Amino acid sequence: MTNSNANAISAAASLCTISASDMPQSLANHLYENGAFMVFLNVPQTTEFGIDYKSWHVGPKFLGLKMIPPGVHFIFFSVKTAPRIGFFYRFKEKEILLRKWDPIREDMIIEPCSADEIERICSNLKSMDDGLAPYPFETYRNWFSLSNHITEKTVERLRPENQYSRITSQAELVTLETEMMEKEGVHGHPSSCVDRDHPTRIRFVDEEGLPIMKIREGFQIRFTELPLHSVAVSTNAENPLDRSWQLHKILVDLSGEWSEFLGEMQFAFVCFLMGQVYEGFEQWKRLIHLLCSCTKELTESRELYMALIPVLHFQLRECPKDFFVDIVSRDNFLTTTLTRLFGNINGPLDLFVDKADELVKINIYTTFMDDPKIISNLYF
């Protein structure tokens, strides 16, 4: 597959604002012949299954998806009231991704398939057509606007290191005691076992006597480590609150690829919005707070901040009016972050001469127009 072919398919898909059943037959045929497939076998009825911006409850004939545009997508599912499970995957042109359902574990599995089985599925795609749901092209633009900076490199850098990079809305927690037992059980005597040579059992508890819990190894999303508030000393003597040094270090670690930084910001937002992972929201807030706490880097990373504006615009469109309000203090997260950003933009730097920032300003105004702290910092 060439990049030009994949880009052409994605471009054709991006033009769609209607479902596959309503689009011209010639376009539907093109997307069918060149798009990707996901074959998902043995999924129980009523299971919630979704891709990107849309989900369904599957029926008895469900066998997977067809006509998937090449690129990164987020696939998710849940059974009854179970936590949502999802994963990012970069589909290639004409690729067939095969997954099966394990009724015992109630989970998707990657089961080794013989060459004959794969060939049989490939040759039977036409006969399976009634059970393959078309990709929801009517929402593709929405998905693209929320994920255009997420690349295969982003996914590989951030994904959890488990079987199929699964991301769960309910963290897979274990006690610190269990974690040590699992590690020591492989190489030595488990610290939690009691016998003649080890008469006591090690337990780890917090100040209130509760077990110390940790996310099971391999299930953490590998976000860039970043505190919500920096405790280190700024290198900017004129502005001690400037965190440009911290942003600069991250960009250096990303080989100067500012789009990768925005890719992580979008990755975190999608994890929260579609994956229902609260840690995604926390990481998104940390990244926003960092970007809004920089002054020196505004001039040195102008491309990053120019690209940030539309990213924020489309993300904020997904958020209800009271989304950022702290339930205890009633303070709005945007009051202390985005207002600082626009204060820097509207200052002597005067970076955005084409008023690209008006996109997100208008969106903030219509959403938070009754918060004078925010509005006064947008235009005055």
**Structural class of the helix and strand makeup?**
alpha+beta
Mean pLDDT: 78
Low-pLDDT ranges? 186-191, 230-234, 372-380
Looking at the structure, the CATH topology of the largest domain is Substrate Binding Domain Of DNAk, Chain A, domain 1
Backbone shape: globular
The description of the largest β-sheet is: 5 strands, mixed
* Global Rg: 24 Å
CATH architecture of the largest domain: Sandwich
The overall number of domains is 3
Report how far the terminal alpha carbons are from each other. Answer: 52 Å
- CATH top level of the largest domain is Mainly Beta
Strand order of the largest sheet: 8-7-1-4-9
Order of helices and strands: HHEEEEEEEEHEHHEEHEHHHHHHHH
Number of E strands? 12
How much helicity do the residues have? 25-40%
Family: Belongs to the AAR2 family.
Organism: Acanthocheilonema viteae
InterPro entries: AAR2 (IPR007946), AAR2_C (IPR033648), AAR2_C_sf (IPR038514), Aar2_N (IPR033647), AAR2_N_sf (IPR038516)
Domain AAR2 N-terminal: 34-160
Describe the structure.
- The chain has a 5-stranded mixed sheet.
- The protein has 14 helices and 12 strands.
- The C terminus is likely disordered.
- The N and C termini lie far apart (52 Å).
- It has 380 residues and is an alpha+beta fold.
- It comes from Acanthocheilonema viteae (Filarial nematode worm).
- One of its GO terms (biological process) is spliceosomal tri-snRNP complex assembly.
- Pfam families: AAR2 (PF05282), AAR2_1st (PF20981).
- This is Protein AAR2 homolog.
